Each structure stands twice: as C-alpha cells, then as structure tokens.
Amino acid sequence: MNRQDADNADTIPSFPWRSSRLGGRFQEAARCSRRSRRVAGVALALALAVSPGVAFAQADALLEQGKQLMKKGKLAEACPKIEESYRLSPRSATLLALATCHEKQGKLATAWAEYIDLGAAARKEGNKRLEADAKARGAKLELRLPRLTLNVPRAAAIEGLEVTLDGEPVDSAAWGQARPIDPGEHKVSASAPGRKRWELSVTIKRGERKAVAVPALAKDGSAAPEPAPAEAPAKEAASPVVAAPDKGGTAPGKGAAGAGKGAAGAGKGAASAGPRKGAAGAGKGAASAGPRKGAAGAEEGAAGAEEGAASATPDEAEEPESTPAAAPKHSGTFVLEAGLAGGALIGLIDAGSFGDLSTYSYSYNVREGELIAPCDDEVCHASFDPALGPLAGGTAFAGVALSEELHLGIRALGGYRFGGGYLLAGGPSASMRFGRLWLGLSGLAAAVGQNAKVTGVKGEIPSDLVGLNYGRTEVNVNAREGSLPETALVETLAFGGSVEVSLVLADWPSSSWTSGALLLSAWPTFMKGLDGFVIAAPVSLGYRFY
C-alpha cells in the first residue's frame, strides 16, 4: 500500500459519519417543521374561536364609550363609535342607541330610516315592545323631516343624464318625488356626455319642503366627439372623407366626397358629437348623437360641405350656458286654498226673533194700575232651546306666503245646516307649518241661523217700573194657546275665532301653478252671539296652492 492508498483509506470511514449527521439534522428540521405547523394550526383555530368574542367585547366597549359621550353632548364623537359598534356586532340595542344619537345630532332622515330598520329587526326577534317603540319614534320624527324634490323637466332629460345628490346617483324613477333628507347643506349635480356639468348647493331646514329644478345642460364644445359605431350601414361607401371646397364640392350629393345621401362624407349629422350641423361621416344620422346636420360638432355655415365643415371654432360650437334653476321659492307668492267641509253646528242661542211679534201683547204694573203693551221686535223676543244639526259646506283661504312656513290672509267658512239654518263666517287668518302639520288661527265675524224649538215669548219691563213688578225685568206675553210656532228660524250675529289643525296628506312642490299640498283639516270654531253662543266643528279636505 503506498502513501496515497493509506491516505485514502484514512478518509473512507469519515463519509458514513458525516452523512448520518446531516441526515439527523434533516430529520430534526422536519420534526420541527411538523411541530410548527401543528402549533400554527392550533393558534389559528384558537384565533377563529376567540375572534367573535373579541369583536363582541370590542363592540360593547365602543357602545359604552359612545353612550358616555352622548350623555356629555359630544355627539360628533359618540355617533361614529356607536356606528362602529353596530358594524362589529349588529344588535337591536345598538341600533336603537345609534338612531337616538343621530336624532340628537340633527340627522333626522338618517335616524328615521334607522328606526324603520329597528322596527323590522324587532319584529323578526318577536320583541313587540321594541317594535312599537321604534314605530312611535319614527312616526314622531317623520313630522319634522325635511323633504327635497329633484325635478327634471323634459327639456333637460337628455340621454345619458345622471343626477346625483351628495355624490350618490338618483334613479330617474325618483325624479319629481319628495324624498326625506337630513337638515343642512346638500349638493345637487347633473352631468351628461358632451355637456357641461351643473352643480347647486341647497340648504334645507327641519320640516322644510324644497324643490330643485335641473336645467338643460349647456353643450361642452371642448368635449371629444363620440366614436363612430363599428358597423356602418350597408349603403355607406368605404372611400375616405374628402372635404369639399364649395357647396356640393366634388360630389353630386350633399356634403363631402360621395355619391349622394348615405355615401361617405355625404350625410347629415354623421360622426357628430352633438346636435350640431356639418358632415364628416356617413349617411343621414349615422353615428350621430343629435338630430341636426353637421360635421364633427361644427355649426351651420362653416366652410366645407354643404351644411358644415369638418371642424368649427369654439365660438361657433359654444352655446350660452343656461342659468341654473334653483329650488322654487314660494315666499312672497299668492296662496289660495279651497276645500269641501262637513261637520256639526251647535246653536246655544236662547233669544231672538222669529218674525212679526206685533200680534202679541203683554201686561205689567204701572203706578196707575196695570198696562197692556203691544209687542214689537224691540221690546219682545222669543226664547229657544239649544239646537244641534249637521253642517255641509266649504272653506276657502286667500293670502300671501310670508315665508315657506308662514301664510297670512283671509279665511272663510260656510255651510248649510240640515234641518234649517246656515253659517257664514270670515276674517283674518294666519297659518304656520310644522313638518306635516299646519296650525293656524282665524278671527271670525259670522251670520248664523238655526231652526230651533220655541219655548215662549217675553216682553221687557221698562227699567223705572221694575220695582213695581217685584224686580222682574221681563214677563211672558199673552199668547193664545197654539198661536206660537213649534219651531222657528232664529238668526244672530256672532264674533269669535277658529283654530286650524291641518295634516299634509300629499305634498307636490314645484315651479308650476299646480304647486301645493292636499290637506285634511279640522276647524274647531267658537263664537259669541248677541244672545248666546255658537259652536261649529267642521272637517275639510282641500288643496292649498302655493
């Protein structure tokens, strides 16, 4: 064995030893990896099991913090915490606290919607008490809700029009409808392809009704023309567009190079980005966004084709921008209301005249003995029992709107009393709006008549002879039996007032003459007559134009 063989022999036993060490390390690493995976799996399972509890605890903490902040009046900080609590753990109690916070914060429409959601959730849970409470809160809040109507006239309702309220699109089905909205400032905007964007800021108060009319959007001359459709009509030619120097140019048809209407470059309104005149594309109306004749947004009369060139200056393409139409204001405008009324008329008129009393006489003591005096309307009067009867008629109001919520004018009430009688009353009136309620007062002067039972006729004793007649101021007249009528129409003048309580059944604010509201009204009326009292309780259904 030489030295090299010996050296090799010395090294041979070392290989199994090294490989066993490496293999052990790999096995140990594998065991560690398996242990790590098991530990990670257990940790993940624990995390999944614990996370709902953590979220619930976090939601409880946020809710408690929000309630404490709400008690301190820090609503701007309280409401977001309660809202985050509800997001982490949706519960009815949290939703009730959130709606209450938003109501105190003045976000009436938001709170109203949350009360509705709360009622639905309570109904699913079978919590009737909470459901009734949510409904009552929502109904009370609804009376103070401001409402905004977005009107889009036909001239403004172009294809592709998008109307947004505070950045949120408003569906076309909701145009023209009054929608609940939070009090404060809101932004209304409108946009359409090829048109200038329009924006308007609107400030609305509690219980206020406003309408915003979207104007016709002005054309945007700087907007890029819309691309032509991929498939052209079969009659169109494939030849390139050649601008004609004069009317008719190098082609017998209208516009640029082509053989008549429908050929390339010949048509009306081809490849136009807006409803303008001038040709640069194919056939009549092909690829056009508007019904006019024109080329690439140019105006009528530009150099080139018969009715327009391939381009136009900004001055030619630009139309004057329309003035934004703000919400219609009704302050200072004329107000008119008319309605049908029905109710009851109660007459407590205990004295009056029923016609000619000169056929009766009465007697009283004088110094010389006894005097028989003839009756007349000045010294004799009939007495009557109270009378109650149904009343049918109407109510009317004419005045001005000093503001959106205050109307001043003249009120009239009138009707026929079944069974005999009438009521005609009128006077100054004022009405003020509180959400869906109108409350008002009217001062009235009235002529009242009622058919009532006659209980007798009495004559007056002169004041200087009262002592001779045992202190009596009047005595019964000498009427033959059966001569007095059983009933008679007694009339009197009366003065008093009426209270208005009107509920808005439907509200249609707009810029047209039909703007107004449908009202269900009650008119409790109290008046003092020359002899007695008059009470009326009519209820009316009417329309108030404003």
Notable characteristics:
single chain; alpha+beta; disordered N terminus; four-stranded antiparallel sheet; 546 residues; twelve-stranded antiparallel sheet
Structure description:
The protein contains seven helices and 21 strands. With 546 residues, the protein is an alpha+beta fold. Strand 20 (525-529) and strand 21 (532-545) form a beta hairpin. Residues 1-23, 46-50 and 229-329 have low confidence and may be disordered.
Q: How many beta-strand runs?
A: 21
Radius of gyration: 45 Å
- Beta-strand percentage range: 25-35%
How far apart, in Å, are the first and last alpha carbons?
Answer: 126 Å
Calculate the mean pLDDT score and round it.
Answer: 74
Class per helix and strand makeup: alpha+beta
Helix content: 10-25%
Q: Main sheet, how many strands, which sense, barrel?
A: 12 strands, antiparallel
The run of helices and strands is HHHHHHEEEEEEEHEEEEEEEEEEEEEE
Number of helices: 7
**Contiguous uncertain segments of 5+ residues:** 1-23, 46-50, 229-329
Which of globular, elongated, flat, extended, rod-shaped describes the shape?
A: elongated
Provide a brief overview of the structure.
The chain is an alpha+beta fold.
Give the secondary structure arrangement, pairings included.
Blueprint: H1 3-11, H2 14-71, H3 75-88, H4 92-105, H5 108-125, H6 128-142, E1 147-151, E2 162-165, E3 168-169, E4 178-180, E5 184-191, E6 198-204, E7 209-213, H7 314-317, E8 334-348, E9 351-352, E10 361-366, E11 369-374, E12 380-384, E13 387-401, E14 406-417, E15 421-434, E16 437-460, E17 474-476, E18 487-508, E19 516-522, E20 525-529, E21 532-545
Parallel strand pairs: 1-7
Antiparallel strand pairs: 1-4, 2-3, 2-5, 5-6, 8-13, 8-21, 9-12, 10-11, 12-16, 13-14, 14-15, 15-16, 16-17, 16-18, 18-19, 18-20, 19-21, 20-21
Helix pairs in contact: 2-3, 3-4, 4-5, 5-6
